[in-house]
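Explain the record.
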Amino acid sequence: MDISLKVLNRYVKVDDQDPEELADRITSIGLEVEGIHELAKGNNMTIGYIKECNAHPDSDHLNICQVEVKPGEIKQIVCGAPNVAKGQKVIVANPGCDFGGGFVIKESKIRGVESNGMICSIAELGLDQRLLKPEDKDGIHVLDADAPIGEDPLEYIGLKDTILEIGLTPNRSDCMALTSFAYEVAAILNRKVNLPKVTPNGIDGSEINVKVETELCSFFGAKLVKGVTTKESPAWLKNALIASGIKPINNIVDISNFVMLETGQPIHMYDYDKLDKKEFVVKTGFDCKEIMLDGEEYKIEPNDIIVSTDDGIGCIAGVMGANSTKIDENTTNIVIEAATFDGASLRETARRLNLLTDASQHYIKGALNTANSLNVLERCANLLVELADGQETYKSVTTALKIEDRHVKVSTSKVNGLLGTSITTDEIKDIFSALKFEFTANGEDFIVKVPTYRNDIALAADLIEEVARIYGYDKIPSTLPEMSMTVGKRTNVQTKRHLIRNLLKDQGLHETLTYSLTSPAMVNDFNIFHTNDTVKLAMPLGEERSVTRKSIVGSLLQVINYNQSHNIKDVNIFELSTTYSKDVELQNLAIACCGEYNGLPFKQISYKADYYLVKGFVETIFKNLGIEESRYKLVRANQDDKNYHPGRTAYIMIGKEIVGVVGNIHPLLEKKYDVKDVYIVELNLTTLLNMKTSKVKFTEIPMYPSVSRDIALVMDQDVPTYDVCRKIIQASKQLVKEAKIFDVYIGEHIEAGKKSVAINLLFQDSKGTLDEATVNNSMNKILAAVEKDFGAVLRG
């Protein structure tokens, strides 16, 4: 936002301030000045009088001018402007004049004729070219006949001005109004604010009626002024707009722009004589096309806020007026509109139509002071009378203006407690007075009436911020916060996750990172942990990523499918990630293996991915987490399980809870995901990592020798041999350190429905050497236990 110091001086005296020092002080209170520049450039310029103007002898467009640049001082200047003539008062850039960017005026010869300066156009003074009229660019600028020769032309034409480039933060949109910004400057300079004098006046009989039929408009007001004349604006008004980055058009448009610049309230004007019903209705629901002020046709949608006139489109509220009610050179009777529209709705409309105008930005950013709306209407009417020869002013016609006073309480102790300062009550009073805040004080307690233009103040903390910035941030002492010393380390769960990740990498698996989103057709595949409803995205990018996954296995199968389709058959991967259902988040680990696992081709050694491989990963993980074998069991998958192969899959159970699954996926799902011979593991880490487990203990290498015995047990075919091995270790009172199955036989000499399982038992005692009697006694206990629990007997 550009702030002209010359325009600002209309509201608070700043013409005695050094611009750079003032900019520093403004920045210190939170309104950052991002840059400073002069409105017009040129440092050695004077008003000159062309005494003679003759054609150049060697050119058909150049003229040789004798110019009086100071009383009695004549300089010869060659000029190529088409409108240069004898007797004109002009702007002269003398030799040495620096326009910036390396453009410096020098004495020279132009086609053999000496030239000592340059006669300037407005466009050559460094102004924004977008803000200038064509005649400002096409020829030199001719001054009034009474312009004083030898004086500073920029001062004379009102372009000697300094511009502050302010970077407003979103919470200070009120400073988009010059009067509000003036209060800030007045506070730091401890000066008063001079608001423009507004004279309320008006007669009855405008015949105007206003209605609001939508909650998106909290106030609407209209005021009729008759007998206006459209003409060029006076120089002060045009210069004020140019300095603020607004292009002057004519006095009517310029007045509306200036009032918006001054008060922050956008103004729209209608040609009263083009209205049949003289009625303004604010509503939504239009679905049509309309030609607007810029001559372009726009599509109006039902959600757009419309100011309707004659049952049609009079204006897209806060954005742009319709062509049918526009002000033109023949307009004499004008209706002024000042309203408060919903910023969020306007933003949607303005962006859709690509019409982010200055007016719409004020609504969108909340720069309005609705309580001042009636005063704004009067201010605009006063300027139409003053600058547009308005003859008759009518009373404003408005909806009800309901403004409630806002009061915020704060105390000296609360200010100092939050800021860590020792500001006195009297200093706080001075700060509130400098900001022109009305307040009552009782001891160190304040009740502040918030100005209606300060929409950013609602809490005591907001008032404390006001105190801090006016008091001076640099005066607030810097202190280190008191805090206890802590050691940065992982939590127990984080440590275990890190351990699992590194463990699986050491086992030769590759970690993946896949999408947490999947499609509704796949979300329930392989899910054994979630029972709640699926979480659906409110605005998904597409059907394939519209819900959150309940299992990681499906994602890993898609990775395997991609690799197998690219002729990579050996894939061994894992992923630790989060799965979701309604109100539930679980940390999962999934492993998927297919093809060969760590083979050694040069030794003709090949390890194929199978059930025992992935089961081994589970056992390794549990062992490193301190989960003893006695705490979990493997249970054959259900025959009706549609996700996993019932003959090659087991559920991992702790008590009655399924904490994981290990095995082969169902053939139907292999076909669905287009993969082959994939063995998987999925564990519920949320449960496993929060279990109380024994610490992993390291024991010395046994000093005494071990004893190995082989036994063959006959048992029913459906007896889990894994459970038999665990029972053997249990019955031996931990004397058996390992029970390894090395053969399973079904066939001749074995009863139908039975199987023979050969198991190697490794006996070892850390306290001494085992003797025959001890081993035999343990064997008897083992055989008795397995016969009792499983009906397993020693093979004869």
